[in-house]
Amino acid sequence: MTRLGVIGTGHFAAYFIAALRHGGYEGEIFLSPRNAGIAAQLKRDFQCRVANSNSDVLEHADLILLSVRPQHAAEALQPLRFGRKHTVLSAMAGIPVGRIRELVRGVDAVHRIMPSSFIEAVRGPIPLYPAAPALMSFLAFAGEVVTLPSELAFEMAMITACFSTWVYDLAEAVTDELCRHGLDPKSARALTLGNIAGPAGFALANPKVSLAAISASIATEGTFTKLGLEHLKSRGFDGPWREAIALLSAKLRQTA
Ligand SMILES: NC(=O)c1ccc[n+]([C@@H]2O[C@H](COP(=O)([O-])OP(=O)(O)OC[C@H]3O[C@@H](n4cnc5c(N)ncnc54)[C@H](OP(=O)(O)O)[C@@H]3O)[C@@H](O)[C@H]2O)c1
Fold first, then answer.
1. Using alpha carbons only, what angle is made at residue 83 by residues 78 and 87, rounded to the nearest 5 degrees?
2. Where are the alpha helices (DSSP H) in the chain?
């Protein structure tokens, strides 16, 4: 079984390891000792082993997760001796595969992933670039792998991670209105969030039907759904969303 080593025992590593363990990964996990607090918590909660040093991580593991902050990448990686036995999985935002290769000389297989933090609690997409047939069964413990065909496409996937957070703010507008009319916050939250998770699950279960077609099949003549949707459309509700998406897209194109 894959033996995972982690260089960068921080927030990302914590939620990725939680997702792996919740998904049934039982292989060994060796942690860089830096950030003793998170390392101790991961050792206790997810049966990880804390290595003596970053070099010790490389000695014990074959798949190496790079999850230091981008500005610490060179300082953390350049002193290390990677070898052919290693496969590298980088979660470092904005560092292209070409640059990672320079930092981990001697490694044949270098891949990038960029899952969102919610995978700690529920399964979600694991954007991957480039394709990694040998890693699919390992990554499937953490979530649903979505392999992107180019580094630009991989960078663009970041937009969906940002979008997943914007949805909270939209949901807050709905729960506020429900609470104003007497619902208790717990019920308002359950109703609102259940009505985000439900449609998402339904659409994922029906991949051949377009999202617009699903909406049109529900928002039929005379329904409250259509009444509200027509109002939103008449106000150009998607305009600011498209602008925000274009803003991120322009920034992400610069890094790809
Ligand atoms: N957090 C997210 O939601 C998220 C999502 C996607 C991708 N990422 C990526 O994940 C990476 C880590 O982000 P994060 O939020 O997890 O940051 P973080 O919590 O600060 O974790 C980074 C860890 O790296 C450690 N570190 C720094 N220099 C090191 C070195 N030379 N050797 C070993 N460990 C070292 C830090 O230790 P100290 O605290 O002692 O400095 C810290 O524990 C980033 O590249 C980011 O782009 C993060």
1. 95
2. 11-22, 36-46, 54-60, 73-77, 97-103, 136-139, 151-156, 158-180, 185-205, 211-218, 224-234, 238-255
| Cα 112 to averaged position of ligand 1 atoms, centre (Å) | 15
Q: How far apart are CA 252 and CA 53, in angstroms?
A: 34
Give the three-class secondary structure for 211.
helix
Task: Find the CATH number of the domain harbouring 44.
Answer: 3.40.50.720
CA 179 to chain centre: 31
The CA-CA-CA angle for residues 45, 104, 86, to 5°, reads 55
For the chain, what is the domain count?
2
- Write the secondary structure of 63-114 as one string of H (helix), E (strand) and C (coil): EEEECCCHHHHHHHHCCCCCCCCCEEEECCCCCCHHHHHHHCCCCCEEEEEC
Residue whose CA lies nearest to ligand 1 atom number 2: 12
Length of the chain counted residue by residue: 256
Domain final residue, candidates 149, 175, 207: 149
pLDDT, averaged per 10 consecutive residues of the chain (256 residues), comes to: 95 98 98 96 98 97 98 96 96 96 95 97 97 97 98 96 95 97 97 97 97 97 98 96 96 85
Give the Cα separation of 247 and 201 in Å (integer): 28
**How far does the centroid of ligand 1 lie from the alpha carbon of residue 73, in Å?**
9
Task: Output the six-digit token pair for 43.
Answer: 């050792």
